[in-house]
Amino acid sequence: xxxxxxxxxxxxxxxxxxxxxxxxxxxxxxxxxxxxxxxxxxxxxxxxxxxxxxxxxxxxxxxxxxxxxxxxxxxxxxxxxxxxxxxxxxxxxxxxxxxxxxxxxxxxxx
Length: 110
What we know:
Helix content: 10-25%
Structural class: mainly beta
Largest sheet: 6 strands, antiparallel
Distance between the termini: 20 Å
């Protein structure tokens, strides 16, 4: 399904740094509660991410990720998911999208 450039421009994606990771114990499928620093304008946000196959909590701390920041919040298990971390589905698991070099938290993706 094609969308217009105007539709695409409504999706706000930002770079951020993972600052905390815990197990989302009440999620139906294995997931982490991930806390991401998205810079001064957006702030610190939490999300639930099903990325336990390839990533440990320790490996995620300090990792820069790309997040969609303007979707409605939703509860996943006991976690208020305020943003969505972006990744690709590869062989049935999620590989996170990351900047190829360090960027500022909150930088816009376009």
